[in-house]
Structure formats: structure tokens, C-alpha cells
Amino acid sequence: MLRADLTEACRRPAAREGTMTSSKTPLAVAAADVPARTKPSNYPEPFASRMARREKRALGDFFALKNFGVNLTRIAPGGESALMHAHSRQDELVYVLEGEAVLATPSGETRLTPGMCAGFPARGEAHHILNRSDRDLVILEIGDRPEGDEGSYPQDDIQAVMGADGKWRFTRKDGAPY
To answer: Could you tell me the pTM of the whole model?
Structure first.
């Protein structure tokens, strides 16, 4: 498939029936060829701008996966994967492909290098990935998509609830909207 055809296919939702894909959605692609999200973050300001140094390619969405998501995420030096957070129902796994990461949690920091991974069960310890190196960090982020998931953020005045439509709703911790 030519890059222009792939880009056009990425703009349309994948149509699937059984185990076959539509003729518009390829069965396999180079992950780096999946277009990056046009909006770098779903967070409201002042948090969204903190995600300016990350680029996500939503591989799971590209293939219309419904039960779990996979992101190929590139984090530039000084960037972070997300605000420090924990999920109420979602399990997550991060796998380092390139570069050096710092896994930060309330209990400390752990250096992650290529080939290492870290897992976060639902209701587990809050976490996020930082890039304190001088080169890009590339990770795979994998998580299920449970209905009714909530995100808690111990370092910031924000909370999140997954809507029935699969979209996050953000408020302040006192429930006031952003």
C-alpha cells in the first residue's frame, strides 16, 4: 500500500466483519506509518500543553480494536507520557523500544531501557513515564478499555471518567468543570 493510500485509510474508521478487514484497511502496516494523532492530548489546559513533547500513533484505533488500545508513543527530551495517574478498571503495560525512560511513581523512580517493560494493574500505583535523556524515547502503551474506568491524578487538580461513548470527561477534583 502506498503511503498516500495508507494516510487516506487512516482517516476512515476501519470497517470489519468477522475476521476480515475491509479493502480500505490493510491487515498489516509499519507502525511508524500510522498517522500521529492530530490533537496531542485530551487533557484540558493547563495540562494539555505539558504533552506537547509526545506524539502518539493510535495503532489499536487504526485497526478498529475495541477491547484494548495500543499506542506507539514518541517522547522528545523533557517530555512525559501522561500526567501521573492510576486507573480504576484499566490494566496498562508499557514496553520500551528505543531510548531511556524514567518510570516515576509516588514511591520512587525506576530507569527503563530498551526491552524493558512495566505493568500497572487497575487500582495500582499511580505512574507516568518521563524522558530526561537527550534523545527521543519510543514506547508501546497497551491497555484494555473497560467501561466506567476512572482516572485519578495524585499530583494535579484533575480527575477523569470514561463516558459511555468511550471519551474521557475531565473535571477538577471538586467536580467543577474545566
So the answer is: 0.85
